[in-house]
Design brief:
- The chain is of the alpha/beta class.
- It has a single domain, classed as TIM Barrel (Alpha-Beta Barrel), CATH 3.20.20.
- The chain is 35% helix and 19% strand.
- The protein has 8 helices and 8 strands.
- An 8-stranded mixed beta barrel has the order 1-2-3-4-5-6-7-8.
- Helix 2 links the parallel strand 1 and strand 2.
- Helix 2 packs parallel to helix 4.
- The longest helix has 13 residues.
- 40% of the residues are buried.
- The model has no long low-confidence stretch (mean pLDDT 92).
């Protein structure tokens, strides 16, 4: 299978975009049309994807938000991930801090293309980089040093990057310069409206923030 950077380049070429949308649903903030559903996370995610899939190169799924519902949230996450059309990239935002979650993002579980890590070290990074089709983004707010990452990137080319949460928009950046920086927007798109027009509002908000490449 192609390495992660090649898959991301394919997704960006298909959408001509670096726009990435983060999905972190909350029951209290659900648009009114979604409140008619007993389990609203799945129809909400599908509605966001239907409105934006031709505008984005990736979606980021917030694991904590989905697990706030327990088992039903995990099911909603799994089914929403499966709803994302090819070749859009799917990233699971844990962020993970140990190797115990290694299988969680494989095709036998959630089946995502990339993950975020919280506390980087060589052993942890190496464990998550063993398959070239997976991307790994390290939290840049932890004072990471560039040299170890560059060395690992030489060993596992096209897989390693960093992410930031304290910027607007948030970003995910591969060390591989062939891929554009992912511009990660969240509620400013997904909750552009809570009224019956929310699908149109979501699309308009995505169009306004789309970075054409």
């Amino acid at each position: 299978m192609s390495r992660f950077s090649d898959r991301l380049s394919t997704a960006q070429a298909a959408s001509h975009s670096a726009l990435t949308i983060g999905l972190a649903p909350e029951l209290e903030k659900m648009p009114l049309p979604m409140q008619a559903h007993d389990d609203s996370f799945l129809p909400f995610g599908k509605a966001i994807i239907d409105a934006t899939h031709d505008l984005v190169c990736a979606y980021v799924f917030d694991l904590a938000a989905y697990l706030s519902l327990g088992a039903s949230g995990a099911v909603a996450l799994e089914r929403t991930l499966a709803y994302v059309p090819t070749p859009i990239i799917k990233i699971l935002h844990g962020p993970f801090a140990s190797v115990d979650y290694l299988r969680a993002f494989s095709e036998s579980a959630f089946g995502v293309d990339g993950i975020t890590l919280a506390i980087p070290n060589d052993a942890l990074l190496t464990a998550y980089l063993t398959r070239s089709e997976y991307g790994v983004f390290v939290d840049a707010s932890n004072g990471i040093h560039a040299e170890p990452l560059v060395a690992l990137d030489r060993e596992y080319p096209g897989q390693l990057g960093v992410y930031t949460l304290n910027s607007n928009p948030r970003t995910l950046s591969l060390l591989d310069p062939s891929c554009a920086q992912l511009r990660w927007h969240g509620e400013e798109i997904t909750l552009a409206s809570r009224a019956s027009d929310f699908r149109d509002a979501v699309r308009n908000a995505a169009l306004a923030r789309r970075v054409t490449i």
